[in-house]
Amino acid sequence: MPFDLDTYLSDKKKLIEDKLNSLLRNPGAPLGTLEESIRYSALAGGKRLRPILSIAACEAIGGNADKALPLACTIEMIHTYSLIHDDLPSMDDDALRRGVPTNHTVFGEAAAILSGDALLTDAFYVMVNEGLSSGIEAETLCEIVRDISKAAGSRGMIRGQAIDLQIETLAEDGGELSLQDIELMHSLKTGALIEVSVTAGAKIGGSDERQLEQLAIYGRSVGLAFQIVDDVLDVVGVGDMGKESGNDARNEKATYAHIAGIEASKERASELTQSAVEALSEFGDAARPLKEIAQYLGGRKS
Amino acid sequence: MPFDLDTYLSDKKKLIEDKLNSLLRNPGAPLGTLEESIRYSALAGGKRLRPILSIAACEAIGGNADKALPLACTIEMIHTYSLIHDDLPSMDDDALRRGVPTNHTVFGEAAAILSGDALLTDAFYVMVNEGLSSGIEAETLCEIVRDISKAAGSRGMIRGQAIDLQIETLAEDGGELSLQDIELMHSLKTGALIEVSVTAGAKIGGSDERQLEQLAIYGRSVGLAFQIVDDVLDVVGVGDMGKESGNDARNEKATYAHIAGIEASKERASELTQSAVEALSEFGDAARPLKEIAQYLGGRKS
C-alpha cells in the first residue's frame, strides 16, 4: 500500500480531535465558562504534532494506535495548557494563537489561568483513567506518568520556559547569548515534551530498552530540528501564521537563526533530521510515518 | 502512652517540612529565581493540614507514616500551587498569605504562574517516583494519581474555584445565594483535596473498601466543617491572621456564615465534626489523631 504522509497526518489529526472532543466534555458537571474556555483552546486546531508522534511511535513498535490514543490526547492537553499560560499578559502577552484570539483575550485572565490548570491536572486523570480501561499495565502507566510529569515540570518544559524568560531579559539588556544557551532552552521548553511523546507512545507499544534509546534520539533530534526551523521561518517572515511574530526582543535577537545565521541554522536542522532518520534504521517499514514526519518537519516551508 | 495533639501536629509538621525541603531542591539543575519562588511559597509554613491528614489516615489503618510521607508532601505541593494561583491579581488579588507577601508580589506574576505550574506538575512526578521507591504497588499508585488528579482538576478543586468566581460576581450584582451553592463550592474547592488526602493516605496504609468509605465520610465532613469554621472566624474578625480579609464581595456576602448566620453555622460545623468522629468508630485507638484533629478543627478559635 503506498504511504501518503498528508493522508496519514490528516487521518490521525481527526482521530485525535474526535477523542479530545469527547474527553473534554464533562456531562456529570458542566462547567459553564470554564468548560467553554478549555474547549476553545484545546479544540482550536494546530498541527497535533505531539499526539501524532505518540501514535506513530506506538505503531513503529507494532503496537495498536487505539491503545495510544488517550495518552496522545493527554500530551496535547498538556501542550495546550502550556500555550494558554505562555500567552498570558505577564508571560509572552500574545493576542493570537493558532489563528484565533488567545484564551485570555476571549475569556479573561482568571479563566485562562484556571483552564490551563484544569487541562494540566485533568491530563493526569485521563492518562490513568483511560490508560487502565484500555488495558495498559499499571507498571507501564506509572512509568508514563513519571516520564511525562518529569518532561513537563521543573526538570523539563517549565525549566525551559524559565530560561526563556531569563534569555529575553538578557537580550533586552544587550547581553551575549551562545548557541548552547538557545539549544538548552529549546531542548527543555519544547524538546522534552516532544521526546516523551515519542517514548511514551513506544512504551505503550511494548518497546524494549534498546528501541526506547533509539526513539529517544529520534524524539530529541526531531524536537530541536522543529524549533530551529521555526526560528528560521520566523526570521524569513513566514513563521507560524496563526501567531503574532516579532512582538518581543527574543524574536529579534535571541533565536537560533539570529545567532547562527540562516544558512548554518538550516544546516543544523538538516543534520538533526538525518540523526532522527538514522535512529529509525532498525524499525523497518513500521517506522515510515516517523521517518517522513521527521523529513517533513526538517524541511517545511511554513 | 498519653496522646498530645499539639505534639503530634508539630512532630508531623516538622517531618513534612523537612521532606518538602529536600524534595524541592533540584541539585542537577538549579532553577534560579524559579526555584527560589517555588521554595518561598512551599516552605512558608501553614498548618500542613492535608499532609498531616494523609499520614494520620495511613496510621489509622495500621500503616507506616514514612511510607505516606512523600505522598503527603505532594498533596501539600498541589495545595501550595492552588494558593499561589488563587492569590494572583486576576484571581483573588491577595497581598498576604501565611503571614508573608504573596508569591507574585515578591517574584512577579510570570514567576508566580510558572511556580504554581511547576509545583502541580512536579507533584505527580514526586508521587510516582518516590512512591515506587518506597515500595508502593503500581496498582495503588495509579489509583492514587487518578484520585488526586480528579480531586484537584475540573471535577474537583478547579470546578470549585470556577463556582467561587461565579458566586463572587453574583454577590457583587446583588444576587441571591443558597446554602447549597456555598456548600457545593466548598466541597469542591477545599473539600475534594482534603477528602483525597485522607483516602490516599489510607490506601497507602492498605485499607479495604469498607474502611475507605468510612474515611471518605470523615474527610468530607472535616473538610466542610473546616471551611464553615473559617467563614465564621472571618466574620467575627479573627480569620486566618496571615491573610488579608474582607477584600472582596465574597468575604462580606457570599459566605456560609453570612447566609446562615453565626449560630446556625457553628451548629452545622459541630454536626459535621460529630459525623467525622462517628465515621472513625471502628478504627479504635489508631484513629485517635484523626479524631482529635476533627475536634480541634471543628472547635478552633483561630
Strand and helix layout:
2 copies of one chain form a homodimer.
Chain A: H1 5-23, H2 33-42, H3 49-60, H4 65-86, E1 96-97, E2 100-101, H5 103-107, H6 109-133, H7 138-152, H8 157-172, H9 179-205, H10 209-235, H11 249-253, H12 256-260, H13 262-278, H14 288-299
Antiparallel strand pairs in A: 1-2
Overview of the molecule:
2 copies of one chain form a homodimer. The first copy, chain A, has 302 residues and is an all-alpha fold. Chain A has a single domain, classed as Farnesyl Diphosphate Synthase (Orthogonal Bundle). In chain A, 72% of the residues lie in helices and 1% in strands. Chain A has 14 helices and 2 strands, in the order H-H-H-H-E-E-H-H-H-H-H-H-H-H-H-H. A two-stranded antiparallel sheet of chain A has the order 1-2. In chain A, helix 8 runs antiparallel to helix 9. The radius of gyration of chain A is 19 Å and the shape is globular. Chain A starts with a helix and ends with a helix. At the A-B interface, helix 2, helix 6, helix 7 and helix 8 of A face helix 2, helix 6, helix 7 and helix 8 of B.
Strand content of chain A: under 5%
How far do the termini of chain A sit from each other? 29 Å
Which spans of chain A have pLDDT < 50 for at least 5 consecutive residues?
245-250
* Rounded Rg of chain A: 19 Å
CATH class category label of chain A: Mainly Alpha
Pairing-aware structural class of the strands and helices of chain A?
Answer: mainly alpha
Oligomerization state: homodimer
The topology string of helices and strands of chain A comes to HHHHEEHHHHHHHHHH
Give the name of the CATH architecture of chain A: Orthogonal Bundle
